Amino acid sequence: MKHLTRLSDFTVEEIMEILERANRYASGETIPQLEGKVVANLFFEPSTRTQYSFMMAEQKLGLKTMDFTAETSSVQKGETLYDTVKTFEAIGVDGVVIRHPQNNYFEELIPNLNIPIFNGGDGSGNHPTQSLLDLLTIYQEYGKFEGLKIAIVGDIAHSRVAHTNIEVMNRLGMEVHLVAPEQFQEEGYAWENLDDVLEEMDIIMLLRVQHERHHGGMQLTKEEYHEQYGLTVEREKRMKEGAIIMHPAPFNRGVEIADDVVECKRSRIFKQMSNGVFIRMAVLVGSLGYVD
Amino acid sequence: MKHLTRLSDFTVEEIMEILERANRYASGETIPQLEGKVVANLFFEPSTRTQYSFMMAEQKLGLKTMDFTAETSSVQKGETLYDTVKTFEAIGVDGVVIRHPQNNYFEELIPNLNIPIFNGGDGSGNHPTQSLLDLLTIYQEYGKFEGLKIAIVGDIAHSRVAHTNIEVMNRLGMEVHLVAPEQFQEEGYAWENLDDVLEEMDIIMLLRVQHERHHGGMQLTKEEYHEQYGLTVEREKRMKEGAIIMHPAPFNRGVEIADDVVECKRSRIFKQMSNGVFIRMAVLVGSLGYVD
Amino acid sequence: MKHLTRLSDFTVEEIMEILERANRYASGETIPQLEGKVVANLFFEPSTRTQYSFMMAEQKLGLKTMDFTAETSSVQKGETLYDTVKTFEAIGVDGVVIRHPQNNYFEELIPNLNIPIFNGGDGSGNHPTQSLLDLLTIYQEYGKFEGLKIAIVGDIAHSRVAHTNIEVMNRLGMEVHLVAPEQFQEEGYAWENLDDVLEEMDIIMLLRVQHERHHGGMQLTKEEYHEQYGLTVEREKRMKEGAIIMHPAPFNRGVEIADDVVECKRSRIFKQMSNGVFIRMAVLVGSLGYVD
C-alpha cells in the first residue's frame, strides 16, 4: 500500500513514473478498469478542481465512489478525522482522498490505517497532485525539466501549491524564481521583482490571492496588486517566445491575471485542469491497481 | 452539439420528435446505453424534481454523473459560473445540466463552450424540460394539442414554467387562458376569472405560490388565495368530464390546491413527475447519443 | 414488498434469516447483483455510519443510488416528507432509505407507498439496521443469544438504538441490564449500577452521550460521567474473560469510553461498522432481490 501525502517522500524516479503513466493516459492509452474497488472522497474544505477531477478519474477507472460531506455527517456530533477515516476503512473502502485544513493531518492517520490516503491538500502544506499536474503540463510542453526557468508569483506564504512546487522543481533541476508582495513573503527564500525576471522565464506560474484567508485584509488594493504583481496584457506581450502561463485556479480575473490573458495562446490554465484528471488516474492506479 | 436552453429555439417538429421519443421510452422501448459518457449536474438553486429526475434519467441511460454542490466548491472563493462550467469542460464532462437563478445565464456560456447545456431552469425565464414534460402528459391524455383549452392559474409573473408554456402552447395551437391575482399579473396578457373559465377547460394547470420569492409578503392570506384562486374540492367537481389537473410541484396543499384534490382521479401531478424522467432521457439522448 | 421500519414487526425467525444471510456475505458468499434497480437515500439528520454503510451496501449489490440532501431540495420550499417520498416513487426509485427526526415518520407514508422503506433511524424510536448489526456482531462471537448477559450503559432515554435493542434482545432470550445516570433513566425499566454488574456481563454496550440533544446541558461533567458511567481502563480489566465491548459510534473518547479502550482487544466497535454493511446488504436483498 502506497500513500500519496507529500511529494517530498517520492524520488525523482517515482515522480517520473507517475508522469509517464499519466502522459500515456493523456495520449489515449487504454485506461485500466479497477472494478469492484471503492474510494471515498473526504473534502473538509471547498474545492472544485481537485474534488471533481478526482471524481472524474475514479469514474474513468470504473471505481465506485462515496462522496463524504462533513456538513451532513457525524463530524457534526464531534467525531474526529481519525475516527471518521477509520469508519470508512471499517465499512470497506479501498482508499480515501482527503482534503483537510490541518497541516500534515495524515501523520496521525498513517500508523493505524490499512488503506492508502490520497492527499487532496493539507492546510498550507502539501498538495501533491496539484504539483504533479503542473509538472505534467510543463513536461508535455518542453519534454524536460532540467534548466527550465519558472517564476512563481503571488501569495507564496499561504500556498500549499507553491511550497510543494519549489521543493520538487529544485530537485528536478529547474531554476525557480519567487515574486511576492512583502505581505506574502517568507523567510528562507530570495525574492525578486516580476519585471526583472519576466522576459527570461519559460513559465510564469501565478498564484491565487486567497482573499478568504486574509482576514486582516490585503495591504494592496486589487488594482495595485494587478499593476505590481498581476500578469497584465502588457506583461504577457513581453514574455519570451513560446513561454507559457500557468495558474492552479480558481483565478481572480483582473487581480493576479488580466481577463483577456486567461484564455490567451500562452495560457495552459485549462490544460492543467485536464491534466489533473490524468494525474489522479495515474496516482490511483499506482496504489490500487495491478500496475506497480 | 445541441443545447437545450430555450424551448422557443425549437421548431414544432423538433419538439414533437422529443415528445415521441420520450413517449416510446414511457411505453417500454429499450433505453439506449450511453456508456462512457459523463454528465455534471450543476444546481445553484434548490430543486427536487428537476435535479433527481435528471439524475434518474442519467442513471437509466448508463451515464456517469458528477453532482456539483455550490456550497462545497470554489464558488465559495468567488469563482464565476463561466469559469466553473469551463472547468467541468476541461476535466472532460460530455454535458452539463444547470439550474441557476440568473435569467439567460447560458448566453455568456454558449459562445466558448464545446459541450451541450441542458437548462434545468434559469431565473424567472425558461424551464424547457418542465414544459416538455407538461406537453408529454397532455399528449398522452389527448393525443393532440390543437384546440385544447388550458387555464394556467397562479403566480404567472414569477413562473418560468408559465412563460415557457404560454409561448409553446400557443405555437402548438392550444387555447391558453390565464388567471392570476393582480399581484401576480404582468402586462401584455389578457387576464380572466377562474370561475368563468373552469368548466370549459380540458386542463387546469396550477402554479405554486412561491412564498420564498415574495419578500414583501403575499397580499392575500393563504385562505383567501385558496378561496379565490385555489382548486378547491368544490371547483374540482365542476370541471368538465375527462378534464385533468396539472401542477409542476412542489405544491402547497390547501393553498393553490385542496389537500384531497392532489391525488384525485383527475390529477396528473405524479404522472408529470414520471414523465419528467422520460423527457430528460429523450433530451440527453438527443444531444449525447447516436440517435440524431 | 417488505418495509423495514420497526424490528418489533419481525418474528425471531425473520430476524435470524436476515442475520444468517448477512453472515454468509461476511463469510465471502457471492453477493447478488440487483442490476437496474435504483435506491434513494434520504437523510434528514447527520449520519456517517448509517448513511455510508447503506451506500456501500448498495454499491456492493450493483444498485444505482440517488443521495438526497434536504438542504438543496424543495424541502426548502416547504415540501413535506410525504410529498418528497411520493416524488421519488413517481420518478421511479425501487426503494427509499430514510433517516428522519420524527418518531414513526413512516406511519403516514406506508398506506400510500408502493416501494419499500428502509428505516435508517426515526427520532428517538427505532433504528432496526443498527440493532441487526449489533445482533450479528454478538452472534458471530457467541453463536447464540439465549442466556447471554448484556449491560446497556448510558443515555438510554434518548437512544433509538437502546429502545430497539432492549425489545429484541429480550425476545431472543438475552438477559438485559440497564445502567444510566438519573437524568437519562426512563420509567418502566429497572436500573442497576455499572460496577455491580460489570464482571458478570458477556457484553458491555455503551451508548453515546448525545451532547447535541441536551440543550439544558448534562448534569454531570465529562470527567464525572467517565468516572461513574464510562468504560475506564480499570473497568475494562475487570471484565469477564472473553467478554466484548460494543458502541454504536460515534463515540466520545474519554467520556463514555477511555481513549485506549476504543481499539483494545475486547472492542468490537469497528467490527460492528463492518457488519453494518453486511446487514444492510441482507436487508436490501430481502426486499428488492429475488431471494425471498
From TrEMBL, chains A, B, C:
One of its GO terms (biological process) is 'de novo' pyrimidine nucleobase biosynthetic process. PROSITE patterns: CARBAMOYLTRANSFERASE. It is an enzyme of class 2 (transferase). Residues 2-140 form the Aspartate/ornithine carbamoyltransferase carbamoyl-P binding domain. Its EC number is 2.1.3.2. Residues 146-285 form the Aspartate/ornithine carbamoyltransferase Asp/Orn-binding domain. Pathway: Pyrimidine metabolism; UMP biosynthesis via de novo pathway; (S)-dihydroorotate from bicarbonate: step 2/3. InterPro entries: Asp/Orn_carbamoyltranf_P-bd, Asp/Orn_carbamoylTrfase, Asp/Orn_carbamoylTrfase_sf, Asp_carbamoyltransf, Asp_carbamoyltransf_Asp/Orn-bd. Heterododecamer (2C3:3R2) of six catalytic PyrB chains organized as two trimers (C3), and six regulatory PyrI chains organized as three dimers (R2). Belongs to the aspartate/ornithine carbamoyltransferase superfamily. ATCase family. This is Aspartate carbamoyltransferase. It comes from Turicibacter bilis. The gene is pyrB.
